[in-house]
Amino acid sequence: MSQATSATGGASYAAAGVDIEAGDRAVELMKEWVKKTQRPEVLGGLGGFAGLFDASALKRYERPLLASATDGVGTKVDIARRMGVYDTIGHDLVAMVMDDIVVCGAEPLFMTDYICVGKVHPERVAGIVKGIAEGCVLAGCALVGGETAEHPGLLGPDDFDVAGAGTGVVEADRLLGADRIRTGDVVVAMASSGLHSNGYSLVRHVLFDRAGMQLDQRVDELGRTLGEELLEPTKIYSLDCLALTRTTDVHAFSHITGGGLAANLARVVPDHLHASVDRSTWTPGAIFDLVGKAGQVERLELEKTLNMGVGMMAVVPAESVDVALATLADRGVEAWVAGEITERGDHPTGAALTGDYAS
């Protein structure tokens, strides 16, 4: 009997490798987690063809601008698969989507997810959704729906990938960005929780292929196993950034993701100005040094790929720095003054790192 043949000899979806009953079981398991993310504007629950959000809530805005973003978590999913840990990768997904949205000053409203698997393991899928739901709570948004797709033959039974899309809203006259930045503004850095969700292709190549390290290997410099370090969830800054906009005159945010610190900060700096960030104001975590030494990766290459210990940056007026740092400290966010905004002059790029990292 062929793989795509049922017991009666005819072809069937299940015999082709798609288990609808397992998918239904996964939905039942994830419902309790999705419910925890609900906002008053959300109508209905799981099971519909579309998630519903009551847009009349936006009437309080004079001119509401909707902000939208979509992302995944890259090859970090391979670490989760190999470790058999599925309830943290969702934090990463929410962070990658909603922290892009908050950069313009937008309040996260809702999110949808897409989980693609080779074979539906209901508890595993529910674990992924649990992490997404927990992340949505941390970002202040609702998880209004999603899709779990089973792709036998294209993905192995234990393979999976995740992606998500989110929507936020900001008042037009509160939109943050390059046009607000002025000479003399100060760059405030917010510490990352580790590698976050970028650069894992380089990290995996260096640590596994070149250095021959193992996920269950304890690394003294890290104070835990390599796998535990690599699965550390991405810090979600959404509510911290929104709190900052309420207490200070924030001019811009920059989410430090793929491309590194300088390239992402340059995206919010106007052409006639320059952002200078002093490396000596912080010490990158041990994981960054480990990747650099294990792969003999040059510093500039590391900085183009990894966040080097900074996950989000805020550009604020000089007179607002003390309030900004106090606000973040009250919320448990490690932050410090890392740089300044000056005239562009002869600088070839919109942002650059200077000096050496503190030891």
UniProtKB/TrEMBL annotation:
Residues making up the signal peptide according to the UniProt record: none
Example of a GO biological process term: 'de novo' IMP biosynthetic process
Pathway listed: Purine metabolism; IMP biosynthesis via de novo pathway; 5-amino-1-(5-phospho-D-ribosyl)imidazole from N(2)-formyl-N(1)-(5-phospho-D-ribosyl)glycinamide: step 2/2
Limits of the PurM-like N-terminal domain: 62-170
Coiled coil (residue ranges): none
Domain annotation PurM-like C-terminal: ranges: 183-346
One cellular component (GO) term of this entry: cytosol
Keywords from the named record: ATP-binding, Cytoplasm, Ligase, Nucleotide-binding, Purine biosynthesis
Keyword Ligase on entry: yes
Keyword Oxidoreductase: no
EC number(s) from the headed UniProt entry: 6.3.3.1
Subcellular location: Cytoplasm
Catalytic activity: 2-formamido-N(1)-(5-O-phospho-beta-D-ribosyl)acetamidine + ATP = 5-amino-1-(5-phospho-beta-D-ribosyl)imidazole + ADP + phosphate + H(+)
Highest taxon, organism lineage: Bacteria
Gene Ontology molecular function: ATP binding; phosphoribosylamine-glycine ligase activity; phosphoribosylformylglycinamidine cyclo-ligase activity
Family: Belongs to the AIR synthase family.
Protein name per UniProt: Phosphoribosylformylglycinamidine cyclo-ligase
Organism name: Streptomyces fradiae ATCC 10745 = DSM 40063
